[in-house]
Amino acid sequence: MLAVFAAVAAAQEYPVRPVRVVSPFAAGGPNDIVARLIAQKLSEALGQPFVIDNRPGAGGNLGTDLAARAPADGYTLLCAGPGSLIMNPLLYKVPYDTARDFAPVSLVATAPNVLVVHPSVPAKTVQELIALARAQPGRLNYASAGTGSSAHFAVALFAAMARVEFAHVPYKGTGPGVNDLIGGQVQLAIFSIPPVLNHVRNGKLRALAVTSKTRSPELPEVPTVEEAGVPGYEMNPWYGLLAPAGTPRAIVQRLNAEVSRIVRSPEMREKLAAQGAEPGGGTPEEYAAVIRADTALWARVIRETGIKAE
C-alpha cells in the first residue's frame, strides 16, 4: 500500500524538472513538427519545459535506441512513428525491441503521405509516372528519411505494386530529403503531408496522389494512389508518444490524459489540420494495439512484396 501511495504521489508531483522528448529524425520533418506541437502544449499544461532532442540517423534507429536506454522515470520520452518502431525492426537487427523496451503513452496524430515529384519530372499523374519509370528502369531517384523509414517503405511498396523500379536515396530525415527534392537532386518521394504542403501550394513540388484510403482535406483535388490506378495501395502513418519500459504507470497515465486532452482541443485540431494531420488520443492500451496491428500488417507486406534491407 505504501508503494502504491508513493507512486501516486510521485505522479502528482511529476514533472519537477525539464523533460526530454527525443525525436529520432532531423528538425523540420513531420515527426519533428508533431513532436514540437505536443511538447509545447505539455510544457504549458504541466509547468515544466518539454524539450525536443533531435537525434537523427539510421532511419530513426539511433534516437529510438537512445530513448529505449534512458532511465524509466518519465524524464525522457520518445515521439516516433512506424518507421523506427516497426519497419526498421522488421528489416534489420536493431538494438531495441519495441514491445519489450517501450511503454506506449498515446497516439498523437495520424497524417497520410503524399506522392510528390519535382516539377521537372514530365509526369502529371500516377499513371504517367509509372509509364516514365517503366521506360527508364532505375533512373528516377527517390528520397526517404532513411533506410527502413516509412518514406522508404511507402515508395518500395508503391514500386512493388506498380511493377516499376526506382533508385533509393536515403537521408538522415525528411527535412534534408525535402530540400534536395525541391532542388532537383532527387526526382520523387512519398513524404507525410506536413513538410511538403506549402511547397506543393507554391508550385515547388507537384502532388500526384495521397496514400490514404480517402482524399486529404488539405489536398482535396489530389486523388488517392488507389484512385490513380494502383488498386489496394494504402499507407496512413501515425506519430505517437512513448516512455521507456518500466516508467511508473501513474506517470504514463498522467501523460496520456494530458496528451488526449491536448490533441482533441480545438486549437490543436486546427494546428494539426494545417499540417495535413488528424488528432490521435485514446488509451495507452489502444495505442499499443495499433503498434501490434501495424507490426503484423507490415510483416505480411514484407513477405508478399519482397522488400529487403539495403
Question: Could you describe the 3D structure shown?
Answer:
There is one protein chain. With 310 residues, the chain is of the alpha/beta class. The protein is built from twelve helices and eleven strands. The strands form two sheets. A six-stranded mixed sheet has the order 2-1-3-10-4-11, sandwiched between helices. The chain has a five-stranded mixed sheet with strand order 7-6-8-5-9. Helix 1 (2-13) packs parallel to helix 10. The longest helix has 22 residues, at 284-305. It is globular.
- Side-by-side strand order of the widest sheet: 2-1-3-10-4-11
Main sheet specs: 6 strands, mixed
The termini sit apart by 52 Å
User: Overall mean pLDDT score?
Assistant: 92
Spans with pLDDT under 50 lasting ≥5 residues?
1-5
Please tell me what the overall shape is. globular
Beta fraction: 15-25%
Structure summary, number of beta strands: 11
Tally of alpha and pi helices: 12
Q: Helix/strand-derived class? A: alpha/beta
Q: Tell me the series of helices and strands, N- to C-terminal.
A: HEHEHEHHEEHEHEHEHEEHHEH
Residues in helices, as a percent range: 40-55%
